Amino acid sequence: MNYYAGIDIGSTAIKAALIDDEGKIVGTHIAPTGSSFHKNALDTFMNLLNQHGIERQAVKFITATGYGRKLFKEADDSISEITANAIGAYEAGKAFGGVRTIINIGGQDSKAIQIDVQGNVSNFAMNDKCAAGTGRFLDVAARNLEIDLEELGDYHFAGRNAPLTINSTCAVFAESEIIGLLAKGHGKQEIVSGIHYSIARRTVRLAKRVGIEDRVYFDGGPALNKGLVAAMQDELGRELVIPEHPQTTTAFGAAILARSLFLAESKEEA
Amino acid sequence: MNSSEADTYYLSRQAREAEATLEQLQDDFPDNPQAMQYFYDLFHRVYGQGEIIKHSGKLVGTTCIHAPEELIYAFGATPVRLCNGSYHYDQIGADFMPAKSCSLVKATLGSLQAKAAVPNTQSLDLIVNPTTCDQKTKASAMMSAMGYKVEDLELPPAKESEEARLYWQRSVRRLATRLRELTGNKLTRKKLQHAMARTSRAQTAFRTLHQLRKSAPTILLGKDAFLVTNAYFFDDIERWTAAVEQLNNELLQRQQDGFQAAQKRAPRILFTGSPPIFPNLKLPILIETSGGVVVADETCSANRMLYDMTAVDEWRLNDMVDSLADRYLKPCTCPIFTRNDDRQRRLLQLATDFKVDGVVYQAFSGCQVYEMEYRSIADALAERGLPMLYVETDYSPDDMGQLSTRIEAFLESIKTRKRQAL
Amino acid sequence: MKTIKTAINNIDLRRFRFWLQLFFFALLMYGGYFAIDLGSRLPTFACAFNEAGRGGICYLFPLQHQLGVPSSRLFSWAGLAVLQGLLIFSLWFFALNKAWCGYACPLGTIQDWITALRNRLGIRYSRYSQGQFRQLSRIKYLLLALMILIPLGVGAALLPHEMGTPFCDICPARMVLPMFTGDFSQLTIDFSSKTTMIMTTLGLLITGLFFTGAFFKKRFFCFFCPMSALHYLLSKPALLKLKKDGNKCTSCGDCYRVCDMEIREIADEVNETNIMQDDCIMCLKCVAHCPEPDALKATFAGIPIFSSTEQGFIKRMHKGQKHEQQ
Amino acid sequence: MKRLCTFAPWLLAGLVWHGSLQANSLWWSESMPHTESSSTQHAHGGPVEIRRGIYHKNLWLRTGDSLAKGSYLDEASVDTSNAKIFLLDVKGEIKPLVAGKPHGAFGVNFAMPDEGFYNLYLISEQFSESTRMINIAKAEVLKHSCREGHDHVQALMSPRQHDELPLEIIRLRAPAENFHSATHFGDNVQFQLLHHGQPLAGASVTLYTAQGWRNTMETDANGKVSFMMIRDYYPPWSEFKRRHRQDYVVQAVHNVPADEHAATSAYQQTRYETTLNGSYYPSTRDYRSYGYGLLLGTFALSFTAVAVYVYRRRGQQRFKEVRFDEDN
């Protein structure tokens, strides 16, 4: 039985995904990137293999993606995370009846990708210059409000009155704005939902530059945050397709690409 | 540090930046044409070791392609293009330029500010500053504040009307008078004709290079082509022409041998937008290291500077000077003009001629005119079914990460599309 | 075939045009001495007043005569002669379109020679401003209208018989062309009647103006010539066409710069393919001075006969610089 | 008003007085007896009447001692009973004509179906004391219409003569004459005097113009004589008519001793007198002035040249136009 792996070395977390011959996902593993991401990436990969009891040789092809893709020597090939995300979302989206637009909010950037019917990237826009509207913004806010990331979702729905408008376009200023709002005695719930709406507005504007087609796929770590998902759906005015492991879609895409590249190479040799 | 050490210090940081780029140009790519060695050495000597640019007669700096160099040569002076591409001078220029402003103008002002500038132009006798975009127009006051003699070459904001054309012809003629005061020489028909002949020989060489780059698979990488045209900024025109003619012969040989400078299915990229000026060849190099190949460009550091030639009906002084003026205004596709139909048409024509797969549109952050034209160019290209990547960057190397992601994603989308199309 | 095509496209148009104009000049001015008679419906100034030497007659002369017959006869079956004349004129015209002006017209050739003389004397040529250009280019239509209405007036006995050929009286060709066959009789004021006196005075004033105009402005008279107006009305179906491929045009304006008639549309028009304008004389200097391959071309019945090439442009512009090698 | 007067020398040469028009001289004339404008139209051969496309010519017989005061004949004044009138047409046939009174005066009207020259002759014979006088009046009339084209002109140009006539004057053609050319003031017109078809040398021939000028010349060896047409039409400038027709008559008298002919007649000598009429027009030199023409032409040329020069010089100051002088 051959296996294929995709490793997404992101700015905040390293995600690895493993698929078998038929392209079904065998398992995924997530670990923080930390400082020496080369060792951490290797460990994440080995942990994933051990979890499922698969030897290193069984993994025929590894594709690396993400910021650190070029420096991960283990990988046989590297691909940009936009293409990997597109392939992963396209595959995962089939279960939900096909997706055409992908919104990904990563640790330090947010991306909007439009793919055509065959799944090829036709247009994409990235915001990787400013931390506002990215996962970092949520981390900073959660730390200031002393809430865990997972609880952000519940706080969003617990809010009684309308969400506050956090109009700061910069993650650093947002911090001071949150503290100001707290001092004025606003509830944490309104602040959290305000933050969600501010991120949602920015991301939808990014997506508009690319053009929004039906069934929008939403992945990346923050996709786990139900509050943010609700805000996004409200801003977009349409349902969002959320996979059950939103963080590993890119790695999954890289794995699928590894499989197709391996099959293509073996066909050429044969 | 006193000023002389400071100068050497600046020189050394500037030199390191240039050397790094030169090494990238030479080592990251296998089998560069031998004829390119002349250009590598030239840049090494001028940028790396700060060799002084030899010139006969007065040295006249120009800050844009609109300054007619034939006129400057005819007065016995030597033109040198001052547009600067080094991030180091960009930092110096940033001291007296607004935060979000064009890196090119910042770098140019920075190089003028630094006494031991690279390329080392020593003392400029005159700077001819065509009033093109806002920032270059405002920069002229700053240049004269630095103590340089500056001649503002007034450019009309629109170029379609006859009034604009006559206004520009008068500006060029006024420049001729100013050059006469500067050099004390008299403009004669023979001198101007001789200067125009030399420039047209250089343009002929460039056009041959331009035709050769149409061959598919491509035989010359875009980064070399940019280096060649960047050398035109300061190199002696006859030596430059000879070197380019030699390069053309070698490329012709390569074409016959069926030599491939990039992989077979490398996406053929048309580069447009803000001019890549040595050592800021960051984007072309990135494209070509990520597997693409820049086959054609529409920028004022290459095609727009050298492509269009002058036609003269009667070889008389007045007619020749007016023909020169027309040649520098009418075909210009610079975004400072109100309409950009010419530029759209030029891009679409280059796309068909060079069988281009995708367009990379570079806009220096802070350059509003290029940023504003992005939408119309994108629509025009989309109509033709050409994908376009809009990249907003500046001279700083620290956005390489984001850029490489975008470039790779763009190239991959083209590759898959091409594989699909097969 | 390819080599012939490139050879034609790279010819030195200036020399080719000089010899072709000389040939047509000899044909139309001295053809008569060799018993050449191309008929009286020529779409160019083969002046009828050059009785002995003319190789054919400019159609405007018989046209005015035919329109000058009494109205009763003109609008009867006899009027068909006018249509028949127009038909033959059109057939001649369809062959060369406005190249009749640029290559065949003796008066045009003389103006080109005067321009060459001015150039050798080192005197700068003048250009019309855009406003002047628009007004002046309407005069030829006015002259064409007068040339048709006045003979009709003569036919209807509203005007004296001496005004039978109004345009020929004031046309400089009547005075200038016979001089080339030694006949200076046209340089006279005809006092036999008030009408002839006024008309011949006008004619001589215009001839004086013609010489100065042609000296300072390239192809001065062609701007006001009713023949060019008549041509333009029939120019659509002509075989020889001037075609432009707007996409290849970088609007560098070289064609506009060298155009003797200062036609802006040739450089600015990028959508139309057939860019024939009413002032154009199809001298094809624009095609010769266009650096973009196949941007401008002259086609005869659809077959491109002369198109712009880069090598041709470079060769011609180099030819202009005799001192280049110093 | 400078008129080129070229005939002055000729006038001063003095008049040679030979034969002159007598009371009974007869000649044909195309001028209308009374000048009401009838249906005559101008054609290349002079006034004609066109009936159903056929040209008809009127000619009246006049007599008198001077052209201007020559009176038209009516039946009684001259004995024309034995006058014989006949027409030598283009094909050379002779057709006798009957005189009539077109427009109220003794004259003749005949049709001219074919293109070419028609010769009209009138021969009248009279006797007085001892001489037999034969008067021959001849008129040469051209019929041409451009519609017939111009290819046949050369063949019909040469003058025809009638040999039986005792005395006849024929007008010789100018070198490049065709149906469109006409005699103008100052032209040299050549005649030949024939006696029974043979050139008569040494005879005197006189040319009379309507204003009364006349000139007599001797015929040379082969009977030829040439006259310079005098310019005698000096209307005030505004009434000058380019197509003003002037008539002239050429007359020759020849006396022959009697015995030469019928022995029975009781006269010693026969006097033959023949006349040939014609017309001529003002020459182009009379109304065309090179002087004014060239004056106006050069004025227009120099005026515009100076205007352009001033405009260019002034043009420079106004815009501070930068111009380079081309002489280097």
Description:
- The complex is a heterotetramer of chains A (270), B (422), C (326) and D (328).
- Chain A is α/β, with parallel strands linked by helices and 270 residues long.
- Chain A has a single domain (3-129, 203-269), classed as 2-Layer Sandwich (Nucleotidyltransferase, domain 5).
- Chain A is built from eight helices and ten strands.
- Chain A has helices at 37-52, 81-94, 135-144, 152-158, 171-183, 188-210, 226-236, 249-269, and strands at residues 3-9, 13-19, 25-32, 59-66, 77-78, 101-105, 110-115, 121-127, 216-219, 240-241.
- In chain A, β2 and β3 (25-32) form a beta hairpin.
- Chain B is 54% helix and 10% strand.
- The model of chain B has no long low-confidence stretch (mean pLDDT 90).
- Chain C is mostly helical and 326 residues long.
- Chain C has two domains: 13-231, no CATH class; 239-321, Alpha-Beta Plaits (2-Layer Sandwich), CATH 3.30.70.
- Chain C has a three-stranded antiparallel β-sheet with strand order 2-3-4.
- In chain C, α7 (106-121) crosses α12 and α9 (139-155) crosses α13.
- Chain C is globular, with a radius of gyration of 21 Å.
- The mean pLDDT of chain C is 91.
- Classes of the chains: A alpha/beta (270), B alpha/beta (422), C mainly alpha (326), D mainly beta (328).
- At the B-C interface, α7, α8, α13 and α14 of B face α14 and α17 of C.
- β1 (189-190) of chain C pairs antiparallel with β19 (288-289) of chain D.
Which key terms come to mind for this protein?
heterotetramer, A: 270 residues, alpha/beta, Nucleotidyltransferase, domain 5, five-stranded mixed sheet, globular, B: 422 residues, 16 helices, 10% strand
Summarize the structure.
The complex is a heterotetramer of chains A (270), B (422), C (326) and D (328). Chain A is of the alpha/beta class and 270 residues long.
SSE layout and pairing:
The complex is a heterotetramer of chains A (270), B (422), C (326) and D (328).
Chain B: H1 3-27, H2 36-48, E1 59-62, H3 69-74, E2 78-81, H4 87-94, H5 103-113, E3 126-130, H6 134-145, E4 150-153, H7 162-183, H8 189-212, H9 222-231, H10 237-257, E5 268-273, H11 282-289, E6 293-298, H12 303-306, H13 317-329, H14 341-353, E7 358-364, H15 368-384, E8 388-393, H16 400-421
Chain C: H1 2-9, H2 13-30, H3 60-67, H4 71-74, H5 80-96, H6 99-104, H7 106-121, H8 130-136, H9 139-155, H10 166-170, H11 172-176, E1 189-190, H12 194-216, H13 226-233, E2 240-244, H14 254-258, H15 265-268, H16 285-288, E3 296-300, E4 303-307, H17 310-319
Helix pairs in contact in C: 3-5, 3-9, 7-12, 9-13
Chain D: H1 8-12, E1 26-29, E2 41-43, E3 46-51, E4 54-63, E5 71-72, E6 84-88, E7 94-96, E8 107-112, E9 116-128, E10 131-143, E11 168-172, E12 188-195, E13 198-199, E14 204-209, E15 214-218, E16 224-228, E17 246-257, E18 269-280, H2 284-287, E19 288-289, H3 290-319
Parallel strand pairs in D: 10-18
Antiparallel strand pairs in D: 1-4, 2-3, 3-4, 4-5, 4-8, 6-7, 6-9, 9-10, 11-12, 12-13, 12-16, 14-15, 14-17, 17-18
